Amino acid sequence: MEKRCPVCQERILGRKDKKFCSDQCRVTHYNNLNSDTSKFMRNVTNILRKNRRILESLNPNDKAKVSKTELLDEGFKFNYFTNEYKTKAGNVYKFCYDQGYLDLGDGMYAIVKKKEYVD
Q1: Which residue, among 101, 70, 96, 66, has the nearest Cα to 82 in the 3D structure?
Q2: How far is CA 41 from CA 2, 16, 44, 76, in A?
């Protein structure tokens, strides 16, 4: 039985366990598998990445204090974050990947970088 490439349907030559006819087809297959499948998912991913970039740019020393106005002026969207972390004191940090922020009240936010980001 002749094996065919799942991407282009060309005949596969070479090793018995080979799955694709070329590197190009292999890369295309895995890019398609890992691509965001909907416009909604792409938009949310882009917002999360932008939020992270904003936090990182305002937090060059891994710990900073900024105003809500500064964050909003940069285009930060507070409703989008990847996870929350609750401290023993009861404070809830919201994270965009490794960059976190905490509402300090009076329109101020603490920004932190989580060093070892494994949850």
Answers
A1: 96
A2: 38, 37, 5, 18
Encode pLDDT of 41-85 as tens digits. 889 999 999 999 999 999 999 899 999 999 999 999 999 999 999
Instruction: Please tell me the distance from the alpha carbon of residue 88 to that of residue 30, in angstroms, as a whole number.
Output: 42
Residue 38 structure tokens:
């909907």
Determine contact, residues 10/4, Cβ cutoff 8 Å: yes
SS3 state of residue 4:
strand
Maximum distance among all Cα pairs of the chain, rounded to whole angstroms: 72
- Domain map (residue ranges) of the chain: 39-113
